[in-house]
Design a protein that fits this description.
Layout lengths: L11 E4 L5 E8 L4 E6 L13 H6 L2 E6 L18 H12 L4 E6 L3 H10 L4 E7 L14 H12 L1 H15 L2 H12 L4 H7 L2 H14 L5 H11 L15 E6 L7 H10 L3 E6 L6 H4 L2 H9 L1
Parallel strand pairs: 3-4, 3-5, 5-6, 6-7, 7-8
Antiparallel strand pairs: 1-2, 2-4
Length: 297
């Protein structure tokens, strides 16, 4: 695999109206069609590096943002999912974008759908890639470690914060996180295992997750709480005038395929594509040409 690297525009901030710093990075074609990218969990804006070479090929300008408390973005106490689109509108206005595309991978999926619901007039299209759905849809088919984390967040958040703090010590130590990736790869479906053991992809993942803990574990811990809360809107209430695309791997054990199918059926104008031989990580990386082409066509 060939992942191009760009450091000159990868670490930028703007100051929002409420005084918070909001971090983002730009990857790909600086004059291309804008796509706001929302990273997975645990992740950061540096996830955009994985998309950069393909973004260049397709004439796409990836704006990859850090959510509050992650990377370069200031923590926001008691934030909700539906407050996030306001930050995106401020950033879009600052960058001079009227209409734009949003897409979210994994834990970024809910944020893309929040934008679809709240600011459909600003969006050209919305993409959800192996995206997490409302927790009330159920966790059947989800790997055990994920189910345990969601249980802790809902019932014993203090214990989850301890878990995240210990994970942060691992994720900010390159040698420890490399060992952790190698260990967890053995529990994953073959497409994800192959990807996670790829040295170049692994190095980018190490950099991305370390950046998530730049400010410590508080941001990532609170991010976990967002996923078990009510979203504040129903998928059925997303505007029918906005096209939503959903891509999901049938072998996904992080976000089970049943969740993806249920979401797509609920969203009024959703076109879903299920890949029978892809899993959670692989569905985006192995099909990024198709995804980008669809989002900017």
């Amino acid at each position: 695999m060939n992942y191009m690297k760009s450091m000159d525009k990868a670490s930028q901030t703007i100051t929002l109206k409420d005084g918070r710093k909001f971090g983002y990075g730009e990857f790909g074609d600086s004059k291309g069609k804008p796509i706001f990218h929302f990273h997975g969990y645990v992740g950061s804006r540096l996830e955009g590096k994985m998309l950069e070479d393909k973004a260049l090929q397709h004439g796409v300008r990836i704006i990859s943002v850090d959510r509050p408390g992650i990377g370069l973005s200031d923590f926001k106490p008691k934030r909700t999912l539906l407050e996030f689109p306001d930050d995106i509108v401020e950033l879009a206005d600052a960058l001079g974008f009227d209409g734009f595309v949003v897409e979210g991978i994994s834990g970024g999926g809910p944020y893309a759908l929040a934008c679809a619901y709240k600011i459909p007039d600003r969006l050209i299209r919305c993409g959800v890639i192996a995206g997490m759905g409302p927790i009330e849809l159920g966790t059947k088919g989800m790997m055990r470690s994920n189910r345990i984390e969601f249980f802790l967040i809902k019932r014993f958040f203090w214990l989850f914060k301890i878990l995240i703090k210990s994970q942060g010590k691992v994720f900010t130590n390159p040698e420890k996180v490399k060992k952790a990736f190698q260990k967890s790869a053995n529990k994953l479906p073959e497409p994800d295992k192959k990807l996670l053991l790829d040295p170049e992809f692994q190095n980018l993942m190490i950099e991305e997750v370390a950046e998530a803990f730049r400010q410590g574990p508080k941001g990532p811990a609170y991010e976990g709480k967002i996923y078990v809360k009510q979203w504040g809107f129903n998928l059925e209430d997303i505007s029918r005038d906005l096209k939503v695309y959903l891509w999901h791997g049938e072998l996904d054990v992080n976000v089970p395929i049943t969740m993806g199918r249920t979401m797509c059926n609920a969203i009024p104008n959703c076109e879903g594509k299920i890949y029978p031989n892809e899993a959670h990580l692989s569905v985006a990386i192995n099909n990024i040409d198709e995804i980008l082409t669809t989002l900017v066509k």
